[in-house]
Design a protein that fits this description.
Length: about 90
């Protein structure tokens, strides 16, 4: 059986660079978290200089979704952060 991975977004910004953005409403199930992180890892092979970001529904999901090399934050924070995605 072939594994299918989905990338939600590859964002290119002249100032901030590339970002790989995966969005997940509920990362409570370990298999869901693993699937989302696998997709980011696979996309990072194609875009090695891109920042990896996982957007989750709310702050309660942050601890469950934490992963090395991945910026995890609530989707609403990312949306409100402005064009640079909160990088300062």
């Amino acid at each position: 059986m072939d594994t299918v991975l989905f990338r939600d977004v590859v964002e290119r910004c002249p100032v901030a660079g590339e970002e790989l953005i995966q969005v997940c409403a509920d990362v409570a199930a370990p298999e869901t978290r693993a699937r989302e992180l696998r997709a980011l890892t696979a996309a990072a092979e194609v875009h090695p200089r891109a920042n990896r970001r996982l957007l989750v529904l709310d702050r309660d999901a942050l601890a469950r979704a934490a992963a090395p090399g991945v910026d995890v934050r609530p989707a609403y924070e990312w949306l409100l952060a402005g064009p640079d995605g909160g990088r300062r």
